[in-house]
């Protein structure tokens, strides 16, 4: 979701780069899989900086990712920029484990900790919005500083190309903190169809994620994050995007208006 945008920005700036992907199909792409460490050498050869995105089909990020990052460090990679989450402190599960390792071992590093992606409305919530006109979460009335993936990517490019290493983490948000009730109202106003938010229990939320193919640990972690949002953990706005990229972050209503057809085309089947 952010990697392609980072690559496009680097290409536009004339900065040499390569994209590590499970299914390389274009120039500049090389085979890479966190579960296949032998592939890493080709992806990392000659690299001075890396943008790190964790696998989304598993939750044991420290065990899987750190050995490859150790190899990257040993092979001359100087700067590490990790995409993590506003919910994960260094040493926490998943990307938090990788955050702690990078901060302890890399000479040049940055960890981006965005709040919830606006693009989640186009992916994990799209089917329920189109078919049932509903968003399901366990966030209650809690608010998030929803952020556009393009703003995260712009911050990642700044971290990769800055003359000086940041050597810290940054909490990234959009310009306003909103509840999912307010998100549903924004969708209703833009799309011209009624969309509502249905509040689930944490366990029911985890069950929905498992039904969509997530492993149990990942599903439970995401559902627990929703409960923390309900308790107010994400009710904040930071100004890191504007300060680090010198551009204002995208507002949710503008994001919805700019992508309206994604929710108004023929409903998804299956």
TrEMBL record:
It comes from the Bacteria. Pfam families: NmrA. Residues 37-225 form the NmrA-like domain. This is Uncharacterized conserved protein YbjT, contains NAD(P)-binding and DUF2867 domains. It comes from Paracoccus laeviglucosivorans.
């Amino acid at each position: 979701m952010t990697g392609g945008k980072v690559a496009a920005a680097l290409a536009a700036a004339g900065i040499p780069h390569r994209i590590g992907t499970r299914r390389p199909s274009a120039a500049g792409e090389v085979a890479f899989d966190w579960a296949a460490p032998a592939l890493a050498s080709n992806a990392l050869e000659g690299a001075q900086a890396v943008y790190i995105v964790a696998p989304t089909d598993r939750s044991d990020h420290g065990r899987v990712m750190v050995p490859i990052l150790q190899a990257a460090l040993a092979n001359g990679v100087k700067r590490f920029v990790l995409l993590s989450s506003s919910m994960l402190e260094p040493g926490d599960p998943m990307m938090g484990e990788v955050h702690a390792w990078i901060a302890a071992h890399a000479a040049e590093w940055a960890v981006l900790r965005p709040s919830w992606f606006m693009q989640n409305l186009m992916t994990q919530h799209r089917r329920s919005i189109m078919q049932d006109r509903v968003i399901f979460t366990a966030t209650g009335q809690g608010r998030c500083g929803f952020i556009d993936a393009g703003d995260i990517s712009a911050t990642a490019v700044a971290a990769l190309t800055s003359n000086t290493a940041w050597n810290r983490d940054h909490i990234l948000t959009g310009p306003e903190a909103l509840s999912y009730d307010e998100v549903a109202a924004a969708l209703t106003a833009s799309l011209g169809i009624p969309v509502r938010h249905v509040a689930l229990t944490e366990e029911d939320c985890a069950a929905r994620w498992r039904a969509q193919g997530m492993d149990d640990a990942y599903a439970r972690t995401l559902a627990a994050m929703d409960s923390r949002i309900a308790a107010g953990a994400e009710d904040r706005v930071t100004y890191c995007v504007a300060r680090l990229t010198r551009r204002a972050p995208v507002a949710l209503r503008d994001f919805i208006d700019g992508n309206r057809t994604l929710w108004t085309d023929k409903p998804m089947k299956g």
